[in-house]
Amino acid sequence: MKRIVIFILAVAALFSVGCNKQEDFGPKSTYKITVDRNAEIRLPDGITITTTFYPKTVDEALSSDITVTFKADPSKLADYPDKAVTLLPETNYTFKKNPVVVEAERRFDPTGREYCRLDLRHTTALKPETTYVLPIVIESITGNGNALFDPDDVLYIVVKTNRPGAGCGTEDVPYVIETIDDLKMMDEYAIAGQLTYFKLMNDLDFSSSANWEPVCLTSDNPMYVDFNGDNKTFSNFSCTDTEKASIFGYVCGNIYDLKIDKATVTAQTTANDIAILANSIGSSDENCPSECSNISITNSKVEANTTDLCLNQAFVSVYAVNATFKNIVLDRSNTMKLYFYASSSSMSNGAMAGGLVARASNVCNFIQCGNTVDLLGYNQKQIGGIVGSLLGGHISECWNTGNVEGNEDVAGIVGQIGSKKGSNVDVETWTVTNCYNKGQIRITGQRGGGICGCPFNSVKIEKCYNVGDVLAMCRRTQTGEDDPENIDGRCIGGIAGHVCGGAGFWDFNIANDVSIIDCHVYSDKVMADTRKKTNAETDPRPGCGAIVGYTSLVNTYTDCYRSSSTTVDNSKTQDSHNAFDQGNCGPGNPLNTGSITPVQKRAIPYHGVENKTAATITRTSATIDNLIEDFFIVIFLLI
Fold it and tell me: What is the pTM of this model?
């Protein structure tokens, strides 16, 4: 699909000027046509759009600067393949910068490049729903006789006008989405590099558009839009084995006040990632922040029916970059079927799943979001009720009541959170605050927690609590049956599973700047089980802890408590110890290990301090109780 654009259109032509034999200009430099985007522009009523282009060479540098002059050449319209088009009238375009200078030594440097600017404006001279064409050629090159161009090389700029009443794409007069066909045209209407506004005017039923193709499939140039759902509903959306399976595909900007009902996205025979709203939301460009808010998804399915094919899946978006998600609640009318890993080689591929997002990075925020859907990944990695993997970002006032199951990095809120050392987001402390989990967390491998499976490198978890059990369990067969000979559940904690630094994250003497503050566990049971995998001499296995399953001795733990009714079960591990009180600790106050002798890859848990009576429960409980009430209000308003 085409795109309305204000864009840098890489243009060139094969230059042809006779060589000046009386002067040595150095090596010849041939200019060739290079187009970054399609030269097609959607021109709304009353709007002026600027398109830019420039001459480019791939040859050696010239010995002197050159000046390139462009012009419109109406005679070239006869060579355009579509004979039904109309020449763009001279009154509807103006060269704003022409000619341009190409500096001799900076022909490959975009920071020093001059662009020819051409303003295209809509006037009453243009007819609605009509295609106009403007042929552009190079008129001359001066300054160096060895700069060549072909006067018959043409750039055709295609200008399309809208139907009456379609809108202008501005905040005051957005493009209106009245039909499925209007929605399909969004990618063509969106203006590259500029926020384009759309408003949904009607409920849309996708029943007649089976196996939907996403609106935008261009990852290097996603739509930058403001999409106002106006509390209307998309219903009966479906697609199967589609590339970037989702409604929007790649999108940046804002999507809000939208309801989605009875959507089904399925991977049957391919490893395509699957989600309902989008495949990817956001951009690494800090000037293009994105936000999804007040999105309601009901009676919908995200299903992977594949075996040993690596794919990621979520309800809202598979990927998110530099994006915020706010007031999004997934109720229990939705279902997710995660794909099955039949072999260990497939598991190593590391596919992810999340209630809202599978993988988020470059500072993503999740605020007042909730999940009630069961995410049963069997043997899958990095699964979280809210987000599977968060490589840079913050989560606040979020909750999960769905059961979550997987092999590694499994939790009620976020499977894995942190930032890799040396990455471009390794600049601050990432946080999980005022969150809670009530779903049961089941781990078939390692690193499982009520709130977070694996926090690493600069993470703070504060004022969170967990009520759900966190349990080791055996892996499943493809038919969903237990495989009792395949069990290795370790690094399991009521709040976090594995909090350790060093190579392979196993060195308990290295802090990875993780702090857990004012967190509480009210689970009935936290249990590890490494019976079938333990070899004390060659392959030791850690067990579980009330707060953290396996930890460095020098991370910061402050005011964390476990309920007196919480059972910490290490009876099926090498270190069959019971929970004991461990007070506050930090880099200058190493963790109290009690009778446990610290050994790499063995039980170094953190149990916090036992709460013997309800009266001793701290301010966290009251804070989160208020949040729960607020969440139910949010759910009521959305539904």
Answer: 0.79
